[in-house]
């Protein structure tokens, strides 16, 4: 029996085929929404009590029944029964089975459309907060490594050519600050997810005097999606904005992973890891492969494609609900899990990274000091273009000599990493997520 059926199910030769196709993977992903669905149902029931569509006794029974379902979800024993269409049907079915007629009243003033909307918003909001905490942990490790190795120099590259002196302090710190910008995007997604759509019904409101301000407070939303048509239109848009934020974080992790894969190579030799954190070859006994970072790079590249995937899913939809939107779950939900795993593995691996000392003492990097030589000529009074020409001629003639002394003191440079300032920016963002609320 489906929520939308008026009579008992009538089987025919096509029923199973149609149901299997239209359900797809929805039951699998609906289990992730179980706690959110119960929370939304409890808030809705409390609101129905306030507008006299439930009696105190009925609400008490509903509250007790939902508490039992919550225990099953927490214990991992909650399942969708055979013949049950989705999480919303399962919760209502269990509730009615256990408490009787009161369970049949819980759908008053609701549609499955706004049920799934509030479930997704609650779920995505919680997932975003969790990811923000994991981003913060990677940020802390990057800043720690930046400070620990700030005096160790590293070749800087442009066009994959040796360019100017850099440092491990700058390199680690650059990715830490990149995560600050990524968290800005994640915070925007959090604010969009943190708006209450409950009460929009099928997208056109209800003749019941629903108290949407009450459910907004009960569910801890910052505010509501006011216009009921737009509340329905936020389905898909919420997921897409979240995907954009995930793609930002994934871009940072993928680029960091690419650097590490390069720097671990024998032609660079800037970084290494304990043997047990690398893999070998079936025929080459010398190999120590960066498989973890290759997989982080691959998974994060998949996540960077997610906004486009959701865009193509939504691109030609008019207002109102459409079954196409069901597929947003199987696009977004695995990406949330994958990014969480990538953040955890990045933090773990960075905690065990080893950096090479005295890299720039290698004669192969002698020309990396050319800009420093030009700058010294300018300090001594030679116009910049003349100094540039002079050093260039010395390099061409093989007479170039250099000093490896560095005096970079401006904000954000090798000698002034601004670690505390960057940490302050991260803290301000994390405070807005209210991670402890």
Protein architecture, described:
The chain is mainly alpha-helical and 437 residues long. It has 3 domains: 15-108, Fumarase C, Chain B, domain 1; 113-160 and 167-361 and 419-433, Fumarase C, Chain A, domain 2; 363-397, no CATH class. 59% of the residues lie in helices and 5% in strands. The protein has helices at residues 15-23, 26-30, 34-50, 56-75, 87-99, 112-148, 168-193, 212-218, 228-264, 291-304, 306-314, 328-350, 370-379, 384-397, 419-433; strands at residues 153-158, 161-167, 195-196, 223-224, 271-272, 354-355. Strands 1-2 form a two-stranded antiparallel sheet. A two-stranded parallel sheet has the order 3-4. The protein is elongated and about 95 Å long.
SSE series: HHHHHHEEHEHEHEHHHEHHH
CATH class of the largest domain: Mainly Alpha
Distance between the termini: 39 Å
Give the CATH superfamily of the largest domain: Fumarase/aspartase (Central domain)
Name the poorly predicted regions: none
The proportion of residues in beta strands is under 5%
Structure characteristics:
single chain, 437 residues, mainly alpha, Fumarase C, Chain B, domain 1
Layout of strands and helices, then pairs:
Layout: H1 15-23, H2 26-30, H3 34-50, H4 56-75, H5 87-99, H6 112-148, E1 153-158, E2 161-167, H7 168-193, E3 195-196, H8 212-218, E4 223-224, H9 228-264, E5 271-272, H10 291-304, H11 306-314, H12 328-350, E6 354-355, H13 370-379, H14 384-397, H15 419-433
Parallel strand pairs: 3-4
Antiparallel strand pairs: 1-2, 5-6
Helix pairs in contact: 3-4, 3-6, 3-8, 4-5, 6-7, 6-9, 6-12, 6-15, 7-9, 7-15, 9-10, 9-11, 9-12, 10-12, 11-12, 13-14
